[in-house]
Design goal:
Two copies of one chain form a homodimer.
Chain A: H1 3-42, H2 45-76, H3 80-115, H4 128-147, H5 150-180, H6 185-217, H7 226-234
Helix pairs in contact in A: 1-2, 1-3, 1-4, 2-3, 3-6, 4-5, 4-6, 5-6, 5-7
């Protein structure tokens, strides 16, 4: 085998390794979010502590993938679609890391609510539905990244509206509880922040979907409405 | 002049141009935040509309700088510190764009609060102090980026604690108001989200400061405590 062929093969191996690591990081973040929401709902403080302790794994993966990407750019000087992939990865892991932070925050709120003396003044709000929507968006964003599937990515952009609507429903419910019984205010505010963290997870999943479209179509679709993207970027090719 | 020298000079011109554009974007974001907070405080709905309308400029700058960076990587194949600069820029503009989004959110809250029938049920909370702290962090983060000044960057990491504390003070104040008069709840929640947006602006400024340290020291200091950074990264050199 010639040196050039060997170099190209080595490059593909490196790219594939870094892609796999992104998916590993995404899977870990997904798990962290699910566990944090479960800890909040089941008042499982051990699980909450576990989520808080595991956040450093997410962070370590981000730093390590970042280093891999810098190495690949410096050594392999990728062009065109390979370079787009690397840049999409650098952006994706920033969003994944911030999702991990949101999971950690939810776990901290679980501890705050379930160990506080104010617990008797908490009115239950079900965050599991909206959390499921957000985790599902993340799962499909990772899937669309793995398979470079812009149809799935487009669907995620549309679904973000459902998470936002669900969040506003929870907000209205919490405001009603607080008005009916002001003693619930402190813990309702904690639950509100937890709901807000979930809504932000949906936003991050949407960002990843936009990077996938950028990656496949070579067009930056951030700051563009779903309708415009459908018309200009995706539709003509399907 | 040889072709190589010419190429090197052209590369420096491109790098300098993209650095200048980042500072321009930062200045615009700073202005947007200040105007949004003023609109909220002075009930200036025209100013709020102006902030909302201007957000697309921030977004356009992000997309344009991103394209410049991709071009430079593909065409100039930068190595070592130049590559670190490009990667730091790609990350910095993501944070700047999100700060712009937070400014837009504050402007929307200003409109919501000051046009709502619930206005009579609003108890005033002064967000200007915490906003000033956050904007000041951003200004110094841009300054440390422009002058590659890790001392300023380190100070920003320390100052983020003040913004967080200030946010918690506002939260306590708002909870007191809500408990005293439940009719203030709806608008207090809007003010709480505005305060949260400001706190997040401080977090983004801190991220930029971390990229500056990464850029100058070649070491990734995210997920590292201020004390550790001082000991391991910055101190030995000053």
């Amino acid at each position: 085998m010639s040196t050039t062929l060997h170099t190209i093969k080595q490059f593909d191996v490196e790219l594939e390794a870094v892609r796999a690591k992104v998916l590993e990081m995404g899977g870990l973040v997904e798990e962290q979010i699910e566990k944090a929401v479960e800890a909040l709902h089941e008042a499982d403080l051990t699980l909450a502590d576990h989520v808080i302790a595991e956040d450093h794994h997410v962070n370590a993966l981000e730093v390590s993938i970042d280093e891999n990407c810098t190495y690949i750019i410096a050594r392999r000087q990728p062009a065109a679609s390979d370079l787009r992939l690397i840049i999409a990865i650098i952006k994706t892991i920033t969003d994944l890391e911030r999702m991990g932070d949101e999971a950690e925050k939810i776990a901290r709120m679980a501890k705050m609510i379930h160990t506080s003396e104010r617990l008797m003044h908490t009115r239950p709000v079900d965050l599991r539905h909206v959390a499921q929507l957000a985790v599902d968006m993340l799962r499909r964003a990772l899937d669309s990244f793995a398979r470079l599937d812009t149809n799935t990515a487009m669907q995620i952009l549309r679904d973000d509206v459902d998470v936002d609507e669900s969040f506003r429903g929870i907000l209205r419910q919490l405001i009603t509880f607080m008005m009916e019984d002001p003693r619930t205010i402190s813990n309702s505010i904690e639950l509100l922040f937890a709901a807000k963290a979930i809504e932000r997870i949906g936003d991050h999943a949407k960002n990843i979907a936009e990077y996938v479209i950028f990656l496949v179509k070579g067009k930056d679709v951030r700051h563009t409405s779903v309708e415009e993207i459908e018309k200009e970027v995706v539709a003509p090719l399907f």
